[in-house]
Amino acid sequence: MWDKPQALLWIANLLYGLAAALLLYALLLVVVRMPIFALKEVKVEGELRHLTHEQLKLIVSSHLRGNFFTLDLVQTRSAFRKLPWVRNVSVRRRWPDKLEVVVEEHHELARWGNIALVNSYGELFHAASDSDLPVFYGPGDSVREVAEHYAKYGELLKPVGMKVVQLALSPRHAWQIGVDNGMVIELGRDQTEARLQKFAGIYASTLGALNVAITYADLRYPNGFAVRKPVKLPAVKKTGGNGVA
Description:
Elements: H1 5-32, E1 41-45, H2 53-63, H3 73-81, E2 86-94, E3 98-105, E4 108-112, E5 116-119, E6 124-125, E7 135-137, H4 143-157, E8 164-169, E9 175-179, E10 184-188, H5 192-203, H6 207-210, E11 216-221, E12 224-228
Parallel strand pairs: 1-3, 4-7, 7-8, 10-11
Antiparallel strand pairs: 2-3, 4-5, 5-6, 8-9, 9-10, 11-12
């Protein structure tokens, strides 16, 4: 090999190239870590209704490590997503010293029993809310389906002034609605929207015209529905003594 000058020249050039690349890499590491590239501004944008300035400041001070070049954007995004009301986060660098963070909050739609909240996408999330929200019940994999039916049933009941405050889907896929006037509406499993639309269409001229509180309406009949009104207990008549009659 030593008698092959061309091969020796090729190896020497390769070694010189590797040394130059390593030197350039080392210089680059030194340069990008210089204080002149420190992040001087973190700008957080989005429609923020629940996140506080203190929460955002804590994330910035506790989790943002590095300068403009060395900051890990994946870890930064993950840190912001740990906040309870955050649904999504996008992070980008803005030359020369700025980090832009766009936060999408959850918009609460309902409660999932007493264990979580449901957002407008039909997704579960865990946060504290004192809003007056409807309550959903159902199998664990039916959150999105219940949210979609909530919107549909709400539109069908809107013309008669009823608001859905509770919606339940049974393991057998039967639907039950609770509305704000105290009535429970049993829809069953089949043709639920058609049944509810028919009920809402005749409610004003039938039950609504009676001016009687109805506690339960069963729409599972093919040609009509059954209702139940509150049971009025007989009045208790007091006697002159300590007893009652």
